[in-house]
Amino acid sequence: MSTAPHQHRLAVGIDLGTTNSLVATVRNSIPEILSDDEGRALLPSIVRYLPNGHAHIGFKAQAAQTSDPKNTILSVKRLMGRGLKDIAYAENLPYDFLDTPGMVQIQTVAGIKSPVETSAQILATLRQRAEDALGDELVGAVITVPAYFDDAQRQATKDAAKLAGLTVLRLLNEPTAAAIAYGLDNASEGIYAVYDLGGGTFDISILKMSKGVFEVLATGGDSALGGDDFDHRLLCWISEQAKLAPLSDADTRLLMVKSREVKELLSSKSETHIDATLGSGEHVRLTISAETFAEITRHLIQKTIQPCKKALRDAGLQVDDIDGVVLVGGATRMPQVRKAVGAFFQTTPLSNLDPDKVVALGAAMQANLLAGNRASGDDWLLLDVIPLSLGIETMGGLAEKVIPRNSTIPCARAQEFTTFKDGQTALAIHVVQGERELVSDCRSLARFELRGIPPMAAGAARIRITYQVDADGLLSVSARELRSNVEASITVKPSYGLDDAAITRMLQDSHGTAEQDMQVRALKEQQVEAQRILLATRSALSGDADLLTETEQTAILRLIADLEQCVDGNDRNSIEAAINLLSKGTEEFAARRMDKNVRTALTGKSLEQFT
Amino acid sequence: MQNHFDLFQLPLRFDIDMKQLDAAYREIQARVHPDRFVAAGSAEQRVAMQWATRANEAYQTLKNPLKRATYLCELNGVALQAESNTAMPPAFLMQQMEWREELDEAKHDAVALEQLEQQVQQAHRDQLQQVASQLAVPDFHSAAQTLRQLMFLEKFSNDLDHASEQLN
């Protein structure tokens, strides 16, 4: 059922990391990292805002991190989809935070910036790099996210990609991306654990790899634990040892930079020095051994072992069922991490692919697959899971699980509720995510209301609430009163994500464009979408016209003609309306094609069994 | 709508070939998964998501013996009503109470927890065996009664897991 043969479609994989970001693509069947014009693969995930409203991104911003800490945003990934109270050590960060509802924002010299906007600037830089290298526009990108990211963090990442002008082919979990790169590179089969300790996030995923299938059995982690925390621990140690007075923002940044250097040096040396001159002229000089460093960070490593145990338990496996452990993320270069992982899984971890690059390479391979550049039979199937249970608030502030963690996506679950008062005409629905029993201990994803329920006796209404998680791991919720058919639905966005109006405003701000340019851009996007749907529908008709009666076929051809007629015009609304009509008019056709497809699948199999 | 067994072309019974289930599930997902329809129209993308969702649900139900047995009972008109029907044989209830007490005492003792866990797992296996023979008859009402007990056991297992997590 793939679309008609076509030329190679340009698609990339982007690893939007806490510390560094990368973009990769598949050229001539080989995945490769795309470097900048100075040959550097990594782009520091750092954005510096300037008084004239512009921004420096990457190395140039990095150079100013100690001199202009307030306007130079590091590790923005830790702020994605997070409120101020969620951010660890916020008091140590030099930014002027605004405690805005849902997600924090930062007051900079260039105005108020949302983490989504800052991430979008990093993504846009990588998109530009890719388009320059590949010489054309991209059809889309696979963006990686930590497997343990919740719905709010995923939605924020998708919003950022949209803001950067990217078509998101899929949000892909980082350890899964690594498993793809790793599995395909080594033709691995069996059960693997991917231990991914990045700059700010930790994931553990247990996967079953077999020919042509990557199946995630369980995942776990901590979305606020990474290499940054090791730096922070060193910073505290330095302050204690040198008996430093509370530090200024610039000094904190300076010592964070020094701490990171020390951490990296201690991966290959048994001892190193810290040498720094603070703003006051005070000189700090200390010596630290690898042993001391391991000692002061032991509890951080222990925090990664707990989720490993939980993931194994969730997968119904024991340590000796694991055939291999793959290390991903720059922080796994620390010897004490390797040692602890090896000891827990009772095997020497594998790290023959560069732990900084493997996620981007895997994402590029998946992007290439999704863009339709691989022949069938030469492809693979990816089955991933949601990391955290999705629930609903019930009486007494309790969270009732609707979809349990580690469910394979896409998935859906419906549950029935009723009214508890006579004549009740509305029902408030509070969607939460997390494992805890109390709603107050879970993350609040959205609140919405089903209104217009006809007055009935208490307990007479039958309200079905359906949770649907799509292949990106994003949730949408709908509610329907079954007796009256009153319906309400929501894509879980409002409490943490950004609504379309906010995105439009940011697009205008970031491109510095007028309202008119925005409209031109929106029109173009709509035209591209129309062409995509026209192509897909024509291809479906040429293959499966026999599934339609003549009348049905004529009706679809008519809708195609209607869309074709307006697609090159300037009226965005009429193009959108025609797209919607065609989409609605081909629903039944799509369903029949899929039925046929599934039937063929199983018949094909039984035929094979006979031969 | 086809039932889960029909979907994967498996015989309608408790005892199924897991390899055949895995193979049929993968074959269907390979055809309907949304990853195959990234370039398709939105109608097709919607249908793909629905199908993939359905295949996942069917697979998860049949893969798990307890869920598979429950589903078989339901297909044959015997709903478990685990929440409203809590009548249990006295011996089973006594055993449960004893285990609960043991769990309270073993909360800080990894070895005792481990032993308790093994006992419960053994009971779980025995009960499942019983369900299998009851479904082979088939006697769906007796199977439903055993399944309700199994759900008690499952809940107790979770509490045990939780206790050993706390201990760690």
Q: Can you characterise this structure?
A:
The complex is a heterodimer of chains A (611) and B (168). Chain A is an alpha+beta fold and 611 residues long. Among the domains of chain A are: 102 residues, Substrate Binding Domain Of DNAk, Chain A, domain 1; 86 residues, Substrate Binding Domain Of Dnak, Chain:A, Domain 2. In chain A, strands 1, 2, 3, 4, 11 and 12 form a 6-stranded mixed β-sheet that branches. A 5-stranded mixed β-sheet of chain A has the order 18-13-14-15-19, with helices on both faces. In chain A, strands 21-20-23-24 form a 4-stranded antiparallel β-sheet, with no helix packed on it. In chain A, β2 and β3 form a beta hairpin. Chain B starts with a helix and ends with a helix. Chain B has 7 helices and no strands. Chain B folds into 2 domains: 60 residues, DnaJ domain (Helix Hairpins); 78 residues, Monooxygenase. Chain B has 168 residues and is mainly alpha-helical. Chains A and B meet through α8, β19, α12, α14 and α15 of A and α2 and α3 of B.
Which CATH architecture of the largest domain in chain B? Up-down Bundle
Oligomer classification: heterodimer
* CATH class descriptor of the domain at 390-491 in chain A: Mainly Beta
Q: Which topology of the domain at 390-491 in chain A does CATH recognise?
A: Substrate Binding Domain Of DNAk, Chain A, domain 1
Q: So what's the overall shape of chain B?
A: globular
Biggest beta-sheet profile of chain A: 6 strands, mixed
Structural class of chain A: alpha+beta
The radius of gyration computed from the alpha-carbon positions of chain B, rounded to a whole number of angstroms, is 20 Å
The proportion of residues forming helix of chain A, as a percent range, comes to 25-40%
Low-confidence regions of chain B: none
Largest interface: A-B, 52 and 37 residues
Overall pLDDT of chain A: 89
For the sheet with most strands of chain B, the description reads: none
How many helices of chain A? The count is 15
Q: Could you say what the CATH topology of the largest domain in chain B is called?
A: Monooxygenase
Count of distinct strands of chain B: 0
* N-to-C series of helices and strands of chain B: HHHHHHH
Number of domains of chain B: 2
